[in-house]
Every structure is written in structure tokens, then in C-alpha cells.
Automatic annotation (TrEMBL):
EC number(s) recorded for this UniProt protein: 3.6.1.77
GO biological process: coenzyme A catabolic process
Reaction catalyzed: propanoyl-CoA + H2O = propanoyl-4'-phosphopantetheine + adenosine 3',5'-bisphosphate + 2 H(+); decanoyl-CoA + H2O = decanoyl-4'-phosphopantetheine + adenosine 3',5'-bisphosphate + 2 H(+); octanoyl-CoA + H2O = S-octanoyl-4'-phosphopantetheine + adenosine 3',5'-bisphosphate + 2 H(+); a 5'-end CoA-ribonucleoside in mRNA + H2O = a 5'-end phospho-adenosine-phospho-ribonucleoside in mRNA + (R)-4'-phosphopantetheine + 2 H(+)
Summary of the function given for this chain in its UniProt record: Fatty acyl-coenzyme A (CoA) diphosphatase that hydrolyzes fatty acyl-CoA to yield acyl-4'-phosphopantetheine and adenosine 3',5'-bisphosphate. Cleaves CoA, CoA esters and oxidized CoA with similar efficiencies. Preferentially hydrolyzes medium-chain acyl-CoAs and bile acid-CoAs. Has no activity toward NDP-sugars, CDP-alcohols, (deoxy)nucleoside 5'-triphosphates, nucleoside 5'-di or monophosphates, diadenosine polyphosphates, NAD, NADH, NADP, NADPH or thymidine-5'-monophospho-p-nitrophenyl ester.
Keyword entries, A-Z: Hydrolase, Magnesium, Manganese, Metal-binding, Peroxisome, RNA-binding
Name of this protein: Peroxisomal coenzyme A diphosphatase NUDT7
Cofactor(s) required for function per UniProt: Mn(2+); Mg(2+)
Originating organism: Sparus aurata
Subunit text: Monomer.
């Protein structure tokens, strides 16, 4: 089976569907985790936020943002934000699944949406929001080589993950950490069916149970 089709079949098993429909009303946000295949390997596309932004300025993240009133659902939010930030047309994204939501440090309920894009997609970043767009091999997020983990970080469930990535094309160095790093690890572990070489803080065979428990623990404290 082709890498893309095999990955889609794997990830669909972790689609949350309506499992979190009973959650209390919280401010919502979504991120798009774009995947593509290059020379038989899985990659994801990440962005560097503009230093002019009020929140998380200069940080690496996936395209995404807060829910608009006009958005129909979490997928709609992720696709709209990706179009606004990097010029990715919604009809060029093959949505695969939505994963378990996580409450971030700002109290937003963030839902990751995973989708496939074409390898030939050429980003057109909105300079007001994004200062760089770069691809990262998904396997990078399972290797201990450039990973650092710290325990007991405020507001984090499990270890605080941190990676230092050097883009081979531009030579630019990027620091990928926090929620973005955690989401990248989760998708890499699931899609590649590979246990990371470091302690991730959750069961890679059954991540749903861990994040479900963490989510309800956070909600109970609201």
C-alpha cells in the first residue's frame, strides 16, 4: 500500500468524531497539521509566527487560530486559518481526522486537524502573521538526537518537549517546543506506528485515554 493511503488508514482510527461533544463551552481554536509525502517519507509543514503578533510572537507552530462565528466546526477553523496564514486553499487539503482537543496555556480548547496536502504546494505566507514556512520530516519527532524534555513544567501534562531543527534548505534554525512539539510527537508516533526514543508521558498505543483524562482534569479546575 502507498505511504499516503496507509497513513490515512492508520490515522482515521484515532478520529475523535463526537466523543467530546459533551464538553462545557470553552473558547475554541484549531490547528491544521498538514502532512505530505516526499521521496517516500512523511513530512509536516510548520510556520514561524511573526514577531509583531501579540501572542506567541516568534514561536514555531502549526497554521491555526481561534474559532470565528462564521466557522461551521473545528475543521472549518483550521482550514480557514491555514488559508489566511500560508495561502493554502481549503479544497487542496484532504482532511483525514480530528484528534483529541487540548487546553493550552491561554485556556483555549485547541483541536488538531490532520490533513494531507500535495508535495508541490508552494506556501504564500501572510507577513502580518507568518515570517517563515518550512517542512520537517515527521520521523524527526521520534528521535532523541535533537530532543530535550523537562518534567514538571507549569501547565503541561507530562514532559515539556523541545526540539532544535535545522532546515537543510535554508540553514535556518528553529526551536519547536510546548504544545506544538507535543502535537507533532503524537502525530508522528501514530502515523509512523513508531514509539519515540524518549519518554513522551503517554501511551503511544492508546493516547486517547491519557489526553481524555488530562482534559477532564483541567476542566474540573475551571
Amino acid at each position: 500500500m502507498h505511504v499516503k493511503e496507509e497513513t490515512i488508514a492508520i490515522l482515521k482510527q484515532f478520529d475523535i468524531g463526537q466523543k467530546f461533544s459533551d464538553l462545557p463551552v470553552l473558547p475554541k481554536a484549531s490547528v491544521l497539521i498538514p502532512l505530505f509525502v516526499k521521496k517516500g517519507e512523511l513530512y509536516t509543514l510548520m510556520t514561524l509566527r511573526s514577531k509583531e503578533l501579540r501572542t506567541s510572537a516568534g514561536e514555531v507552530c502549526f497554521p491555526g487560530g481561534k474559532r470565528d462565528l462564521s466557522d461551521r466546526d473545528d475543521v472549518d477553523t483550521a482550514l480557514r486559518e491555514a488559508q489566511e496564514e500560508i495561502g493554502l486553499p481549503p479544497d487542496e487539503v484532504q482532511v483525514v481526522c480530528t484528534l483529541f482537543p487540548i487546553i493550552n496555556k491561554s485556556g483555549l480548547l485547541v483541536t488538531p486537524v490532520v490533513g494531507f496536502i500535495d508535495e508541490s504546494f508552494c506556501p504564500c505566507p501572510n507577513p502580518a502573521e507568518v515570517s517563515a514556512v518550512f517542512p520537517v520530516p515527521l520521523d524527526f519527532f521520534t528521535s532523541e538526537k535533537d530532543h530535550f524534555g523537562a518534567h514538571g513544567a507549569a501547565g503541561m501534562a507530562g514532559p515539556l518537549h523541545s526540539f532544535h531543527f535545522v532546515d537543510p534548505d535554508s540553514g535556518n534554525q528553529y526551536h519547536i517546543w510546548g504544545l506544538t512539539a507535543m502535537l507533532a510527537i503524537v502525530v508522528a508516533a501514530l502515523a509512523l506506528r513508531k514509539k519515540p526514543e524518549f519518554d513522551v508521558g503517554f501511551d503511544t498505543d492508546d493516547p486517547f485515554s491519557f489526553f481524555h483524562k488530562i482534559l477532564h482534569r483541567r476542566i474540573s479546575k475551571l
